[in-house]
Amino acid sequence: MRATIVGAGIAGLTAALALARHGIDVEVFERAQVLKEAGAGLQLSPNATHALASLGLLPGLQKIGFEPQSAEVYRASDGVLLLANPLGATARARWGAPYLQVHRSDLQALLLAALKEYRRVSIHLGEEVAGALSDHKSAYVQMKSGRLVASDFALGCDGVRSVVREALFGKESLQFTGQVAWRGVVATDDLPRGLIPPKAVVWTGPERHFVHYYVSGGRAVNFVGVVEQDWHHEGWTTPGDPDQLQQEFSDWPDEVRHLCAAVRQPFRWALYGRPKMTQWTKGRISLLGDACHPMLPFLAQGAAMAIEDAVVLANRLKVLEDPTLALKAYFSARIERTAKVQAWSRRNARLFHLPGPAAGLAFSAARIADRMTGSDPLDRMEWLYGYEAL
């Protein structure tokens, strides 16, 4: 069986590896001339690391990742701890896989190294796709150069601005969320020693919040700060003004202010919501990752959902010989879960930006409910972290 994949980001490379391990020939087409991952840090919760472990990547992940002790939410105005979920050994014991924080480029390099073991996987750079279609025998990907690539099935792993999605389902309506994200990476050596704890931390405040965590084995700190603002440029790679970033969080806790001051070049992008797709498979072509269920970055699950997609899809193709049936089965297996994750991400966007007293009440309600029911705080995450991509 032969597959064509459009896009060589985390989604496309994971899909290529998952398919190759099942003996499927794969061609990957990427419009960039050089493979370098946009963005910076990723949080890979146990559902994602479990899926990557099934592809033989866990030892490599542990070398490039950082394992936080816990995930904690604080109120920025007074430093009050609102919520704490243990991770580290607790997560490994409960879900059989670690919670790891990695740099995107490190994960991309790990996937590329794994793909080199498969002779029947080829990656073509500088190849821009113009469209895609299929008939009862084959899937076809049309290159802007005019070349037509035929295969048994094709996958659009080409992100939020997916050309494949538009070719299959037409243009979509976008809705600006009113939120703008700042991101950056700071070398740990450029920060005061011990300033950043070995945890995944969220600081909440009215109309803004800030997240920071270690990546690259603890050698760097990744941060994302989100503010409610009327600025509409969508894209990971727009440089932001360092002075403006510092102004946005000028009266926030020391950790936040030091990170904002230490970053050499922050980046900025507007957050857009996209409607839930009711279908993302047509004939012998399907979508995967952000191309079909883009996530707002408030549950740290965008990469995780793409990784799960890849493993589930490959397993359906292993069982069902007809690609059209396998793609339909993959969609049916994934649509409700990814929609739920999208909904929780939107919920967190509101929760993280509540005024101080309201935020305290919202998080206190969760803690009180745990005490009344005798529940472990991690029980709330079982549906998400306990999922096994099969």
Please tally the helical runs, counting DSSP H or I stretches of 4 or more residues: 12
Return the structural class.
alpha/beta
Could you say what the CATH topology of the domain at 175-273 is called?
Answer: D-Amino Acid Oxidase, Chain A, domain 2
The CATH level-2 architecture of the domain at 175-273 is identified as 2-Layer Sandwich
- Tell how many strands the DSSP assignment holds: 19
Distance between the ends: 20 Å
Proportion in helices: 25-40%
Task: Describe the structure in your own words.
By secondary structure, the chain is α/β, with parallel strands linked by helices. The protein has a domain at 175-273: D-Amino Acid Oxidase, Chain A, domain 2. 35% of the residues lie in helices and 27% in strands. The chain is built from twelve helices and 19 strands. An eight-stranded mixed beta sheet has the order 5-4-13-14-15-12-17-16. A hairpin with a 5-residue loop joins strand 4 and strand 5 (81-86). The chain starts with a strand and ends in a 5-residue tail after the last helix. The relative contact order is 0.17.
Topology:
Layout: E1 2-6, H1 10-20, E2 25-30, E3 41-44, H2 46-53, H3 58-64, E4 70-75, E5 81-86, H4 88-95, E6 100-103, H5 104-115, E7 121-125, E8 129-134, E9 139-143, E10 148-151, E11 153-156, H6 163-169, E12 175-187, E13 200-205, E14 208-215, E15 220-228, E16 238-239, H7 242-248, H8 254-262, E17 267-273, E18 281-282, E19 285-287, H9 302-319, H10 323-351, H11 356-373, H12 382-385
Parallel strand pairs: 1-2, 1-11, 2-7, 4-13, 11-19
Antiparallel strand pairs: 3-6, 4-5, 8-9, 9-10, 12-15, 12-17, 13-14, 14-15, 16-17, 18-19
